[in-house]
Amino acid sequence: MESEKKILSFLKPDLVEKILQESTVQEFPKGTEILRAQQYVKVLPIVLDGLVKVYSKFEEKELLLYYIEPAQSCVMTFNAALKNSPSKVFATTETDSKIILIPVQLLPLWLQEYPDFNELFYTQYNLRYTELLETISHLLLDKMDKRLYDYLKRKSALTSTNSIKMSHSQIANELGTAREVITRVLKKLENEEKVVQNAGEIEIVGEW
């Protein structure tokens, strides 16, 4: 309980107590799908530990939208819950994760009673908007080798490891490109001694 309070310490103590009383804390193994598109949202997640990937699908291709880190929530889930509309996104645990699940029927009342609960989601909207602008900038200005390198660095930082275990197809899905492109660009980065590939792992060994 104390660890949960520490993660939620950015909220006022009375709200933290309310959340812990009314919500469920659940642990999910890596790769667990916790939300599907077109599913009605029943609970709002706040990640306590671990990492959750939020993404969309277009013609069976995945496109990474953002990651939810500890002390963060999902603005897309929040929006769908308030409007009582189906989710437009998928969410899957990227690592073993501990998540607090808030029943969505409590949201309207809490948003009125606790101003800092509103602040949580204003902050999340601002964060995601900033990330969106950065993504657009990458798409418009950066070549694929820089985009891929920055993606791997970001992934490394999020998972606290220098070795990324992902297939070329998985990376291609998250970057919205073809597997063949990722394979070719990774080889280029390897020749430039920026990464090393070995047995399904990619390790960052050099700076840009």
Please give a structural write-up:
GO terms for molecular function: DNA binding. 46% of the residues lie in helices and 25% in strands. The protein has 208 residues and is an alpha+beta fold. The chain has two domains: 1-139, Jelly Rolls; 143-204, Winged helix-like DNA-binding domain superfamily/Winged helix DNA-binding domain (Arc Repressor Mutant, subunit A), CATH 1.10.10.10. The strands form three sheets. Strands 2-6-4-5 form a four-stranded antiparallel beta sheet. Helix 6 crosses helix 8. The longest helix has 27 residues, at 115-141. The N and C termini lie far apart (42 Å). The mean pLDDT is 90.
Offer a few descriptive terms.
HTH_CRP, transcription regulation, Jelly Rolls, CRP/FNR family transcriptional regulator, anaerobic regulatory protein, Arc Repressor Mutant, subunit A, 8 helices, alpha+beta, single chain, DNA-binding, 208 residues, four-stranded antiparallel sheet
